[in-house]
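pinning this so it doesn't scroll away 📌
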Amino acid sequence: MHKCNYDNETFNACLTLIRPDYFYTWVNIVAGLDMIMDGGRAQEIVNRCGGEIEASLWYGNVRKRWMLRRGDWPAAGSGGLGLEMYTDVVPDEDLERYDVYAVIGYKDCLQGRNGVWVYKRTGIA
């Protein structure tokens, strides 16, 4: 299952549920964020801001857990900045009981005196 939230201009934030096998009663969750911006600015954020990223998994209005950095994220490309975070073993019954989503973000140290954290909410599973 893949659920996204986007504004068609500046970002695309998605939540992907991955079931390792049909018989498992849990899923792994990946949260991804693509920020559409100039590739040079994206590279500068990665290089100068230390790649500070974070994400949390939410059940309704309650933060349930922090997510972990996935692979070599964040990454800069010609289309902007991308990042991915993940968490393991979310029981099926939690998905049936709650609106599950992630809030994912990065620190943009190029804004303001001390930098600004930019957060986006994914689609709801």
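📌 and the second one:
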Amino acid sequence: MIRLYGMMWMMLVAIGAVAQDTVLQPIVNDYIDEANRIREVSEVNRLSNALYREKFGKEQAVNIVTDIPPNGAYYRIAFQKTPYLADTGLLDIWHRRLADDTASIEQLTERYYGLLKGDNPGNGYVLDYIKTPSMQAGYFFDEQGHALYIVMRSPAQEFVMATIEMDLTAREKVELARDFIRKTKFVGG
């Protein structure tokens, strides 16, 4: 898992990400509540390990997070599964302004998808896209895993990557991804 986050960071450099803005400046989203922001690495790892244990019945081999970057943030989030049942998860979200990257949302999403999929065969992975005049987005996940990955891009070259850790079914992950994307609004540029 550490390798995956390292590769994602290197990928950002490779696609020309440059700005060090905070994640809350370019977007608003109903899932992001400042009261639920997690500022301590130990708390991020504690929640991540609890979610992993809930899904797989064992601890993660290592704590994944070693620092919180200036252009990223962690939040506790809730997803309303039914009118009477909400599930809690961990949102890792960060923002960059893309510099002269003309890649389509499909190309951007598939870059991350390829890194995270690694040597695993394509079976069990879901990959889809949503396009509107104000945003293009892609999302993907392993049906057997507990993480959902969302890539979003505005026409003004604002780029957001979100990872949500939560014990959801494949159908619930699709619902959450679509709802998260629908509720995201780019406010800068």
